[in-house]
Amino acid sequence: MSSPFDLHSHSTVSDGLLAPADLVRHAADMGVQVLALTDHDDIGGLAAAAQAAREVGIGFVNGVEISVTWNRRTLHVVGLKISPEHAPLREGLVRIRDSRHVRAAGMADGLARIGIAGSLEGAYAHVSEGGIISRSHFARFLVEQGHAKDVRSVFKHFLVKGKPGYFEHQWASLEEAIGWIVGSGGIPVLAHPGRYDLGRTNMLTLFHEFRELGGRAVEVVTGSHTPEMVPHIARLAHQFDLLASAGSDYHGPGHTYIEMGRLPELPPICTPVWHDWPEMQNQPKVLAA
Ligand code: AMP
Ligand code: MN
Ligand code: MN
Ligand code: MN
Predict the structure, then answer these.
(1) Percentage of the chain surpassing pLDDT 90?
(2) CA 178 to CA 64: how far, in whole Å?
(3) Which atom of ligand 1 is nearest to the CA of 41?
(4) Full strand arrangement of the beta sheet holding 73-80
(5) What are 176-232's pLDDT values in tens digits?
(6) Which residues line ligand 1 (CB under 6 A)?
(7) How far is the CA of 172 from the centre of ligand 3 (A)?
């Protein structure tokens, strides 16, 4: 059976391909019963998504995925059940979004140096009105221009550390991101830890610091984890007394590691982040399973 909860997804407000309401309708069609929208550094899609969820009759969770710099690495922290009205969260996200424009200009300069002109305008042409600019938008432009065959190979050759379109950037600190989420009444979730390519020592340090700063949960099941990573991260979550989350990290048709409604269930060792949520009361099948 697949997980009825999908607590990580993206819309056109960040780098997803479906508008918030369309994303929710797609989730419902695929059998998701509770969805969180977690756009990168932006909460602008939550109201439309919540409205669509009411219309199609699925549960909806306000979320966000905050970009963080920790020990000179980029990490992502998902906030679940955040209040979009909380001023420090809103202001923090504005700061990150503003800085994305500066970084985008730096990326475009790097690409111009290897002879790729017009990438700033080209990337912005893929951004929805009011949406954030991300490396995914540069990737779409570069594929469109024939510089690589697909988005995955664009990242590998142009957009990761050491490549011409990579621009070193300072995101929020881990402490800030967790503070904004907790302050807004939300639950901080460490996103896809298996993807950061940390050695064992750094991983343990990260889990420890995340917990100390007020982190509460870790994504164990995610489209970004290989099947081998899941039991490993599940054990770490258990060891550090962190709850477990599950999310597809869906970005749209053809732009995702895993389709919605296909997430495996959490391993039995995990305590789901939703164990005490009211949404559980609408899940009698799951409770009985
Ligand atoms: P940014 O926050 O602007 O650095 O963009 C990060 C986003 O780029 C991630 O959320 C993914 O959606 C996408 N991304 C990162 N690495 C890859 C990759 N190797 N292949 C495809 N998409 C990627
Ligand atoms: Mn993304
Ligand atoms: Mn992420
Ligand atoms: Mn994501």
Answers:
(1) 93
(2) 12
(3) 2
(4) 5-6, 34-37, 59-70, 73-80, 187-190, 217-222, 243-247
(5) 999 999 999 999 999 999 999 999 999 999 999 999 999 999 999 999 999 999 999
(6) 15, 40, 67, 134-136, 151-152, 155, 251
(7) 14
Calpha distance 122→4 (Å, rounded): 38
d(CA 117, CA 127) in angstroms, rounded, equals: 18
* pLDDT the model gives residue 282: 64
pLDDT recorded at residue 50: 98
Query: Which is the closest atom of ligand 1 to the Cα of 133?
Result: 3
Instruction: Quote the tokens at residue 211.
Output: 């917990």
Q: Closest Cα to atom 11, ligand 1: which residue? A: 136
What single letter denotes the amino acid at residue 164?
P
**In the beta sheet, which residues pair with residue 34?**
5, 59
What would the pLDDT profile of 149-180 be if each residue is shown by its tens digit? 999 999 999 999 999 999 999 999 999 999 99
Q: Are 237 and 219 in contact (CB under 8 A)?
A: no
Residue with CA nearest ligand 1 atom 20: 152
pLDDT above 70 for 283: no
Alpha carbon nearest to ligand 1 atom 4, residue = 135
Distance separating alpha carbons of residues 184 and 85, to the nearest angstrom: 8
Predicted confidence (pLDDT) at residue 288 exceeds the cutoff of 80: no
Render pLDDT for 28-80 as a digit per residue (tens, 0 to 9): 999 999 999 999 999 999 999 999 999 999 999 999 999 999 999 999 999 99
Asked if 178 and 188 count as a contact pair (C-beta separation under 8 A), the reply is yes
Task: State the average pLDDT over residues 74-87.
Answer: 98
Residues 6 or more apart in contact with residue 35 via CB below 8 angstroms: 6, 7, 9, 23, 24, 27, 49, 53, 58, 59, 60, 61
User: How remote is the CA of residue 284 from the centroid of ligand 2, in Å?
Assistant: 33
